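Homework help thread (please don't just give me the answer)

Our assignment gives two proteins as sequence + structure token strings and asks us to describe the second one. The first is just a warm-up. Here they are:
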Amino acid sequence: MRLLIAGGGGFRVPLIYRALASGRFAGMVSELVLYDVDPARLQAVTAVLHSMPGGPGAWVPVHATTNLPQALAGTGMVFAAIRPGGTAGRVADERVAQDLGLLGQETTGAGGISYALRTIPHMLNLARLMKEHCPEAWLVNFTNPAGMVTEALLPVMGRKVVGICDSAGGLVQRAARAAGAPLLEGRLDGVGYYGLNHLGWLYRLEYNGQDLLPRLLADPLALATFEEGRLFPQPFLAELGALPNEYLYYYYQRDAAREAMRAMARTRGETIHSQQEELYPRLAGAGADAFRLWEEARRSREEGYLAEARTQGGQRDESDLAGGGYERVALAAMRALSGAGDTQLILNTRNSPAPVPDTAANQTAARPATPGPAIPGLPADAVVEVPCTVTADGALPLPQQAPPEPQLGLLRQVKEVERLTVRAAVEGDRKAALAAFAGHPLVDSEDLAHALLGRYEREFPELRDLWRPGVR
């Protein structure tokens, strides 16, 4: 299989390559194509790949290019992880919100809306070019904000697109270890999880027919052994009856998160931007030392993840620092989609599979009934993040328990914001963008919505072009 990584100069690309070169994904890909708009970043990442340690047979052929149509020709799988505007764009996404007294985070709240408005047009262009140059290829989307981007892509790609994120799957694995419930690779039969990307809850964790989650939530010592268990007070978790995704820290501890961010000398985006501005030129000329430099930077970056939630001290788990999360999810999804065997993963996909078209070819055959929504209470055509069975036909969402209030209320509110954001980006609807900012629970103000959009338009002139007919 020929795999294309769109955003091939991205910092995490070596993780994908490392997983392809050894272990259970070795041999899955015959050629790896790296596409990026920045040739200097491609050169740096290629240097890291060439300097990676490995035994015989650990090399996967790599081709780097800045020509997207050429990269797409003959491709069977596209993995998208692009960042329009680079890390400098992330800095502005976060800083504009923070300067207005709001939470400054790249995928959550105001920063996430700005990021989506800038990114969706680029991803739609990628999808249209795929339909032209490799119409049978799958699109595995890791481009953030993953839920909104995937929802925007569905009308173009249909079942041929799935969104991935390692956050929910990581929560399940960490909770299972803490509860003493070893999970079988590729199986989520006893797992209950519902949500949107970066907004979800683990509500059931069965092992040998017994739900171990209530006991885990009542055990402060067990909760203290993993990231999400430390983010929230134990009495709060016991009353909630579920384990929130780590990004819900920004909702449940909003004031603490905002003040911790404001107290930091630099935003998370500024720290990463500074690191990469210094690192990438060094990587390109580092020769055999490139991988070591990259690995040191990767660990440093992991240590700073969600630092605002650890203001009282404490370090991330070694298993988190070691890496190996998102690339395993991505490659497991790709392997199942390519027909190499079914698996179960938490993915971003349509809440209810689209009905089978009523074409002449199937009018005489019995057609199975379309399943109901995986998350009751959310629209059937909305993209949600839930456990899925992944096959060569795509991702089938598994039915989940109806979320209680106020979880369902929060999901509905944020989903409406996501859909307004997608409409704004796809249709050039500035009023929808304003409504999205105003309606987000971390903004909740029409005055702030106008201030946010005005400042983002000054930072990103391409946003103003979205509202001009004939420019998009």
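The one we have to describe:
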Amino acid sequence: MQLMLEISSSSHLWVLEVFTALWCFVMGSVIGSFLNVVIYRMPLGLNISKPKSRCPVCETPIQTRDNLPILGWLLLRGKCRTCQAPISVRYPIVEALTGLFFLLLYIVLVHSGGQFLPYRTPNQFGGSYQILEGRTWDLIALDVYYSYLFIVLLASAYIQYDGQVIPRRLLIWCFVIGLGAGAVIPELHPVPAMISAQSELLKSETLLNELYNYGTLHVGIEVETLKTLVWGLIYGVITGVLFCWPVLFKPESVSPLAPRTMWLFVLAGIYLGWQQVVTLGFLAAFSLFCFELSSLRNKHLLLRLPASAFIVAILTSLLLFGKYMIVLPFHMSYLSYLLITGIQVVAISVLTGVSQSIHLKRISQSKNTGPDFN
């Protein structure tokens, strides 16, 4: 009898795990569907809620059954039901990317009990049942906080890829929500601004933290939280300026560093803190450099890929596996930590400057020799 109860309990937990994972993916894909509307309408100054989505060719309103994320495009075989005009494959790609991110972030953040968060000691238990027991409110809030940053930066990258300027209201809303929520909920900033080389928690302190703090949300304004936000904002501005300096004061007509790219670092600094925004800037600059170098002789392929695409890619990795991608003072001596941070800061401006030069050279070669379609 005891064995039967254990099997039944185990099967119920398995159903809960699958349902929660599917719910995260579906919710993400629904938000991705709305994101497609934002990407298209907001840069044009159109209302993002009205009118109802319609075919851009025949202007027939899209029926509810055809507007299902991913499935709607697949069932229509990528064509309008009325006029058979092709529907861009980008729509289900955005929906799938957003759904996949929501699922992965839930797994590595909430389901794991915070195992992949830098600096923060993980929860003692993991799994979906934590949600039912009320042990994950802090991680759920952090999940929502990070997800909002991700969808704003993903929309910004697609808007820049389309040759449009990121709308101010999209950035301002993200800025205000990041500052507002971050100021009153300390749990949204697991990595504090100041970390000493001897600041790892003792085992007894860690146990008390798990018993009394983890899983709960403490609403209130704290000095340490405000310091974290201010330092994140300052370093976000510094990283953004260093990343975009080739076109910041002398805009180029053709550049992967599109207007308002630096504001993406400002937002990342607010949401993630100064340590992670420096890592984001360095890895994004390095990725951009590698891409430009590898495509030097390519005259047309991915020619319009903006730098924000690499920012989003690195940001996604940081949100999912930040514990293994950033260096903190207690990992090494403080002098070594300062040296590594300084090298990253200097490398950002050097790598983006070289990337800009390579990009302009590639554009010049393309104009001189004509496009190569072979």
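TA reply:
I won't write it for you, but here's a hint about the kind of observation we're looking for: The two ends are 70 Å apart (CA to CA).
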